[in-house]
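Sample pair:
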Amino acid sequence: MFLSTPVKYLKFSILMVKTNIKSAAAYKTSFIMQIIGMMVGDTSFAIMWTIFFKRFPIINGWQSNDMMVLIALSSINFGLCLFFAGGTWELAKKIANGELDQYIAAPQNLLWSVATSKSLLPGFGEVLFGIIIYIMFGQLSFLPVITFISLCLITSIILFNFQVITQSMAFYFGNFEDAAEQLYVALAFCTYTPQGSFTGFFKIIMFTIIPGFFVAELPVKLIKTFNIYYFLLLLAFTVATYFLAIFVFKKGLKRYESGSLMNVKM
């Protein structure tokens, strides 16, 4: 009985992803090119950092191999969110345009329905690229691989939570699409940059407004040397941001349903 709800949502998610893939696969050339295009772009990015670290071997303790593992981790967690919860990238737009009405009457959870309503195909390319990079540069013994997989899943949940929180700001501030996108870009920049290069004010930002520390620096530390206290800290942050995301979304949804949401079309 306890597992019935998670299983139901899992089946629903799989069904939605299958539907999204079938829809995208109808245009085979575009389908393939989106995936290949993302992988080519990521490869160029990895080559750039490889060249950089040949010139500057260490940046505050960070080496080339650390950067490659970070790229693998970030590619997979961003890819999972894009592919399985691509609808969250349009949440602010749907709020602003009053497009949540079609989901309110649905029997499934509204947020989950919106999140799984779209699969962004470049995310599949991101995941494939991340797996290839980890195989090339990561530790392939049993425990490191299990740790890496676990951290990919945990950090993808944090990214999902972050997207829900930032996109849900449209409930409160009206047209928040551009701001939410900029926050996403800022987080992506932080997670694809050597963490040793962030100090002072930027480090504070990564602990607070943008969860870069928890989706980039801390996971790489755990992959290099597993520490149960750091792992529990990461889990606690994941749970905290999950409940914060649900609270922010539900509170905003009440404003939306009551009609008190400002009309951003004006």
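Residues 261-266 have pLDDT under 50 and may be disordered.
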